[in-house]
Specification:
It is built from nine helices and five strands. By secondary structure, it is an alpha/beta fold. The protein has one domain: Flavodoxin domain (Rossmann fold). The protein has a five-stranded parallel β-sheet with strand order 2-1-3-4-5, with helices on both faces. The longest helix has 20 residues.
Length: 232
Amino acid sequence: MKVLAINGSPHMDEGNTAMILNPFLEGMREAGADVDLFYTKKLNIGPCNGDMSCWFKNPGQCGQKDDMQILLPKFKDADVIVWASPVYYAGITGPLKNLMDRQLPLHFIGEARSKKVKAVLVSTCGDWELSMFDPLLVQMKAIYDHTETNSEFAGALLRPMAEGMKEMVKSGETKKVDEVTQAAKEAGRQLVKEGRISDEIQKKVSRELMPREAYYKAAREMMDQLKKSTGL
C-alpha cells in the first residue's frame, strides 16, 4: 500500500497536528505501508490559476512549473492520501488548500483513476468543541465519498483542545494523552489491514480530556501569562 501524507501545519513536526499525524503514520508503517510524508511549508506550490489548460490544451499536465510536478505522480500512484491540517479559523491552512486545488490535472475530462483511492483527514484545533471540524468534514466527504472520482473517504482523526494536550504533557499528565496517540497509531494499523478506520477508534482520538469550563479557564490563564511575558 502506497500512502501519500501531506502535513499542512506551518509548525510541521512541532505542531499539534503532528501529535496525531505522526503516530497514525507510524501505525501504517508498522502494518507494512510505504509512507511518503511532505510538508507544505517546505514546498513551493502556487495557487491554481484556473486557465483549464490541464484539461483542454495539455490534458493531465499542469502548466505551472513548481513542486507540484513532484507531487502529481505521487498522487496518481497513491492508494491512500492523508490530508493533515490544523483548523485556525475557516478550515484547512492556505498552502494546503492551494495544493488540493492543484490536483485538477488528475481529473481532466475523459480520464478515470485506474484504482480506487482512499482519503483520510487528520485535523486539530484549539477549541473544545468537536463541531469546529464540521465544515471541513463536509468538504472532504464531498470530494472523496462518491463513485465519480473512484475514491472513498476512509475516516477522520479529529483532535479538539489540541493545545491542551501539550500543556498536559508539560505538567506530567500523560496518561490520557498517551491513550489518544496510541489510538491514532492503532488507526493507522487498522486502515492498512481493514481499509477503514472504525468509529470506535475515531472517537478515542477525539475523546474529552477535561471538562469544557476547565479547559477554557486554563486557556484564559495561559493567555494572561503570555500577555504578561510579552508585555502586551
